[in-house]
Amino acid sequence: MTRLIARETGLSFGRWRQQLHLLVAIRELAGGTQVQRVSESLGYESVTAFITMFEKALGRSPTRYFAARSQSQPADAPGED
Fold it and tell me: Tens place of pLDDT for every residue, the chain, 81 residues?
């Protein structure tokens, strides 16, 4: 499996797995799941370990990542109430 992932994606298995974890985490966190629950479901030993991985990959903690996204989202489109 490791060789197949490397051949198909160009990523090491560890890097591919991290990317998968990030995709799952973003989806779950955006849906309102608590960081602790996401961390546990992805198998991290602690919330701190999960947050550290998230920060290293995306440059900010989950809380700051979603705060920045909500600030960059456009307000209601003109004419829509």
Answer: 889 999 999 999 999 999 999 999 999 999 999 999 999 999 999 999 999 999 999 999 999 999 988 887 665 544 444
Q: Which helix (H) or strand (E) segment is 50 a member of?
A: helix 47-58
Domains of the chain (ranges; CATH) run: 2-72 (1.10.10.60)
Please give the Cα distance from 18 to 16 (Å, whole number): 5
Q: What are phi and psi of 58, to 5 degrees?
A: -115, 0
Q: What span, in angstroms and rounded, lies between the C-alpha atoms of 81 and 4?
A: 50
Q: What is the DSSP string of 58-75?
A: HSS-HHHHHHHHHHHS--
* Tokens encoding 59: 């440059």
